[in-house]
Amino acid sequence: MGKPFKARCFRALPRRTRVAAPLLLLLCGAAVAGDWEPAASRRADLIRMVRQDCGSCHGMRLLGGLGPALTPAALADKPAESLELTILQGRLGTPMPPWGRFLSEQEAAWIVARLQAGFPEDRAFVGAGLPAMMHTGRAAPPAIAGKPAPTAEGRP
């Protein structure tokens, strides 16, 4: 029957292109997969989204809840590509929604890489009483004008 269509098309390309194309694809793929970082403002948005939106099901500390834990130990045996697809497309028949409307493939890959390494804290909430609530289960009481703000234990 002859050579497959793909092989015939590839052979029709000039020799330099046949050699350079796979190398270029390999280099581009490596750069996209491992080295991409979102801009600082978008990075803060992504961290906040994971901590707040994902945390509403996976636990505020990502230790599990309605959804499974998203800790490095829990994700160690899961392929990154599978986790990225789960983030972007959701899981049919489960409460896991698709986030592809809000995230690019690069952002999903970045989130997965960070989850597998240990997700960073949300610095926007440091000093706002939320870390105390997230770690102890109790919110820090609000400050009263003219008095020092109390801690999560109730002492100034």
Word description of this protein:
There is one protein chain. By secondary structure, this protein is mainly alpha-helical. The chain has 2 domains: 40-119, Cytochrome c-like domain (Cytochrome Bc1 Complex, Chain D, domain 2, Orthogonal Bundle), CATH 1.10.760; 121-143 and 150-156, no CATH class. It is built from 7 helices and no strands. The chain is globular. Residues 21-33 and 125-141 have low confidence and may be disordered.
In short:
About 55% of the residues lie in helices and about 0% in strands. It is mainly α and about 160 residues long. The protein is globular.
- CATH homologous superfamily title of the largest domain: Cytochrome c-like domain
CATH architectural label of the largest domain:
Orthogonal Bundle
The termini sit apart by 83 Å
Helical run tally: 7
* Main sheet makeup: none
Structure keywords:
156 residues; mainly alpha; Cytochrome Bc1 Complex, Chain D, domain 2; 2 domains; 7 helices; globular
Write the layout of secondary structure elements.
Blueprint: H1 5-12, H2 15-35, H3 40-58, H4 72-75, H5 80-89, H6 105-117, H7 130-136
Helix pairs in contact: 5-6
